[in-house]
Design goal:
The complex is a heterodimer of chains A (259) and B (183). With 259 residues, chain A is of the alpha+beta class. Chain A is 46% helix and 26% strand. In chain A, strands 1, 2, 3, 4, 5 and 6 form a 6-stranded antiparallel sheet that branches. In chain A, strand 3 and strand 4 form a beta hairpin. The longest helix of chain A has 37 residues. Chain B has 183 residues and is of the alpha+beta class. Chain B has 4 helices and 9 strands. In chain B, the strands form 2 sheets. Chain B has a 7-stranded antiparallel sheet with strand order 6-5-4-3-9-8-7. A two-stranded antiparallel sheet of chain B has the order 1-2. In chain B, strand 1 and strand 2 form a beta hairpin. Classes of the chains: A alpha+beta (259), B alpha+beta (183). The interface between A and B is large, with 60 and 46 residues.
Chain lengths: 259, 183
């Protein structure tokens, strides 16, 4: 016997049942199941997760899921986005029942995130450029460098290593100061901001630069301009580069994980 | 400066696989009582970003690995219980805040999953298979490896196993048969 399920894309602010067309995973027909003023965006399927060992296929499904979230956001405003492959066993009534039970929580979360979108900010720095700048502005460092070059070879080697370590520390200090400054400036202007651990893949245009820090933040369209200007300031410094992506549904800020 | 959305595949994947809403475990569809969340797919995509460098560990790790695997001292088994798989690995303690990785030997038996430390001969982490609700492979790019989240009634544990792929599939099967016995 085939067990029915509903694949969940997002929860949106809508009180009506609507058909969004065949825009889902593998061209599934996507529609909304409302409860009061909330609705789940779903497609109907068998109670089997979408699973494959084929990377291309997996990417395609994930992008299709992402597309539905974007379409729902364009139509209904900020959504509560679901992870890939979350299925609810049962029919539309089971989804409505779930919405009913989670209503208070879902409603307050949608209210909290209303009008906001998520953005990622990655900051890179050019070590050599910052080091050169530092040598120019700090005559003591430049002097030390000349002194070392005049030493006998053996001693010069050790001192050179020490000098390089010192320089690296100062460059990193300088870079961190810029990042800290940017963080607190953005913090004042956005709803939420977090430092992200690790860095995602490096784009070709940043290949000569080192990753400094990544932030993920939540803000509205009105707050965008000022934040964009702050990022522009950092990006226009030749020692730094900024990658700014979004808007995303609030994947990193929605708080509805397994209770 | 304006944000971009072009060529952000990696970020889309990260968001859809590692973030966003997941449901209360009992609502996710299950087969033989075991939640399925597209684990092959996660593995397929995981290799895209981080090379899965199993067995590449620093010298401290290698020393601990040797000392754990050379020992024959293993956990006491209950009657009728048998070992399915043994592998070197870690469990993360208090992984939500600060914490540390505790090394040991993972034992997957027909009834339990436990991390055994030869010295002083105790299980640092132990759980019966029936209590495990969700297995989720997660990427840890900062450590250049994949790890496994176990959601179980009462908590979450982050673990690392040196042969994650084999371990995961064995654990998966063990969970299915443990559930079948119960139901």
């Amino acid at each position: 016997m085939i067990v029915q399920a509903r694949y969940l894309y997002s929860v949106v602010r809508s009180g009506s049942q609507e058909n969004l067309g065949n825009i889902g995973i593998q061209e599934s027909e996507v529609y909304t199941i409302p409860f009061h003023d909330l609705a789940a965006v779903v497609h109907s399927c068998e109670a089997q997760p979408y699973d494959t060992r084929d990377r291309r296929q997996a990417e395609e499904w994930v992008l299709e899921h992402s597309y539905v979230i974007d379409q729902a956001t364009a139509k209904y405003g900020t959504v509560l986005p679901f992870s890939f492959d979350v299925l609810l066993k049962g029919d539309d009534a089971a989804v409505r029942d779930w919405l009913c039970r989670g209503y208070l929580h879902l409603n307050s979360e949608l209210y909290r995130l209303n009008d906001c979108a998520e953005y990622s900010i990655q900051i890179y720095y050019d070590y050599h450029l910052l080091a050169e700048d530092l040598m120019k502005t700090n005559p003591e460092l430049a002097q030390l460098r000349i002194k070392i070059d005049q030493q006998p070879k053996g001693r010069a080697y050790l001192q050179k290593r020490q000098f390089e370590m010192q320089l690296r520390e100062q460059v990193l200090g300088l870079a961190r100061k810029t990042a800290d400054g940017l963080f607190s400036q953005i913090e004042k202007r956005c709803r939420e901001i977090r430092v992200e651990k690790g860095s995602s893949s490096k784009k070709e245009r940043f290949k000569d630069k080192e990753h400094l820090v990544s932030f993920v933040c939540l803000f509205t369209d009105e707050e965008m301009e000022e934040i964009g200007d702050l990022l522009e300031d950092v990006d226009s410094d030749p020692g730094f580069s900024v990658r700014f992506t979004g808007p995303w549904a609030p994947f990193s800020f929605v708080r509805l994980e397994a209770e | 400066m304006n944000p971009e959305r072009e060529s952000c595949l990696v970020e889309v994947l990260d968001r859809l696989l590692n973030r966003g809403v997941i449901l209360n475990a009992d609502l996710i569809i299950t087969v033989a009582g075991v939640p399925l969340i597209g684990l092959n797919l996660r593995a397929a995509l995981a290799s895209m970003e981080t090379m899965l460098q199993y067995g590449v560990m620093d010298s401290w790790d290698r020393r601990s690995r040797d000392s754990f695997t050379s020992s024959e001292v293993s956990p006491p088994l209950q009657e009728g219980e048998h070992i399915i798989l043994k592998s070197f690995g870690y469990v993360w303690q208090n992984w939500a805040s600060t914490g540390n990785w505790i090394p040991g030997s993972w034992y997957l038996t027909s009834r339990r999953l436990l991390l055994w430390r030869k010295s002083p001969g105790e299980a640092v982490f132990e759980i019966s298979l029936e209590r495990i609700q969700i297995l989720k492979v997660v990427e840890a790019p900062e450590r250049e490896r994949s790890e496994l989240d176990l959601l179980y009634s009462g908590g979450v544990a982050r673990i690392y196993v040196s042969d994650l792929e084999e371990f995961r599939s064995e654990l998966y099967q063990a969970l299915a048969s443990a559930r079948a016995l119960v139901s």
